[in-house]
Amino acid sequence: NAGVTQTPKFQVLKTGQSMTLQCAQDMNHEYMSWYRQDPGMGLRLIHYSVGAGITDQGEVPNGYNVSRSTTEDFPLRLLSAAPSQTSVYFCASSIRGPPGSGANVLTFGAGSRLTVL
Amino acid sequence: SQELEQSPQSLIVQEGKNLTINCTSSKTLYGLYWYKQKYGEGLIFLMMLQKGGEEKSHEKITAKLDEKKQQSSLHITASQPSHAGIYLCGAVYNNDMRFGAGTRLTVKP
Fold this sequence. Notes:
The structure holds two protein chains of two kinds.
Chain A: E1 4-7, E2 10-13, E3 19-25, E4 31-38, E5 42-51, E6 54-57, E7 64-66, E8 76-78, E9 87-94, E10 107-108, E11 112-116
Parallel strand pairs in A: 2-11
Antiparallel strand pairs in A: 1-3, 3-8, 4-5, 4-9, 5-6, 7-8, 9-10, 9-11
Chain B: E1 4-7, E2 10-14, E3 19-25, E4 32-37, E5 43-49, E6 55-58, E7 61-66, E8 71-76, E9 85-93, E10 96-99, E11 103-108
Parallel strand pairs in B: 2-11
Antiparallel strand pairs in B: 1-3, 3-8, 4-5, 4-9, 6-7, 7-8, 9-10, 9-11
């Protein structure tokens, strides 16, 4: 029972490089989302998806792309990394989206720590 | 999140002491979630409050929701080192979940 799996756990990039943070869940959750966590600012929503083929922007979407071709996977792409994107990234999912009703609780991955030099 | 403010930002308590963390929303609350994050790890769901006046407890942690004040409090009784971590409140606005900046709790043995 893996839950939400994020890879890699750690990554160092140079400014301008591109990379993809992977997120996979095995709970058949419809809703998936990406957050970044920065000191003093808490968690900020980057992008979210309410189902395969559907994505939408959150609070801080600039510099990030997402796609949702399957229910299980929700990768986050950085096309041209910038030092301001140094952060810890969390992927989360819930049974149906958006979260907020009944037992529809967000389950989080362990996080991916990204450093952009 | 600008919608949710937590206080205090950090808290250091002696083991065995009680403590309270507050979460205030700038918008109407339709539900409030509490999560705990251990250092360097993901978030673990603690409890969810949906109705004004609702109070829930899990082991030594109690959370209350005051809908009129748009506020929730998390109270820990007889704190233990295992309670240490970052506590975050979350709420749903405009169909997505936002979080407060978190309260970092240190429990000294």
